[in-house]
Amino acid sequence: MRVLGLDIGTKNIGVALSDELGILAQGKEVILRKSDKYAIARIKEIVEEFGVGKIVAGLPINMDGSKGARAEDSERFSGKIEKEISVPVILWDERLSTKEAEDVMIRADISRKKRKKVIDKVAAQLILQGYLDSEFKRE
User: Fold this and answer.
1) What is the pLDDT of residue 94?
2) 28 has which bridge partners?
3) What are the domain boundaries of the chain?
């Protein structure tokens, strides 16, 4: 079963997809969040195309553990996904995932212009890989 990872932002949604064994995450694409309806329709297409059985959505919790506006938006949007697509959505603490994604790309000497285009996809990949690693450790 494949798992889909999402980095939900106000303008873009980074998307990552696991391999069929649920071991490795790979960045897939960035969905422009024109509207929730548009974004959910694209997510549904990916779920159907790849036989996704679970979605992991990043939950941007503040460093002090509180939830701000972005976390509330992620929870609301994830609820819509679960209702519209009928696939379980797991919220995953994604503190610093975007910062980590940026650091990885800087170390890889990727230009600022290219980083801006793929940062959300890389963040989704890191969120999903963190979840997959935690599941692997439980087995």
Assistant:
1) 82
2) none
3) 2-138
Q: What is the rounded CA–CA span in Å between residue 19 and residue 25?
A: 7
Q: What are phi and psi of 29, to 5 degrees?
A: -170, 175
pLDDT in tens, 87-108: 999 999 886 666 777 777 787 7
- The topology (CATH level 3) of 2-138 is Nucleotidyltransferase; domain 5 (3.30.420)
Separation of alpha carbons 66 and 75, rounded Å = 13
Give the per-residue pLDDT at 120. Answer: 87
State the Cα–Cα distance between residues 58 and 99, nearest whole angstrom: 14
CA distances from 29 to 44, 62, 66, 134, 138 (A): 14, 26, 29, 23, 29
Angle between helices 112-138 and 97-107 (to 10 degrees): 120
CB 92 within 8 A of CB 56: yes
Helices (H), the chain: 36-50, 69-85, 97-107, 112-138
Look up the pTM and report it. 0.88
**How far is the first Cα of the chain from the last one, in angstroms, to the nearest whole number?**
16
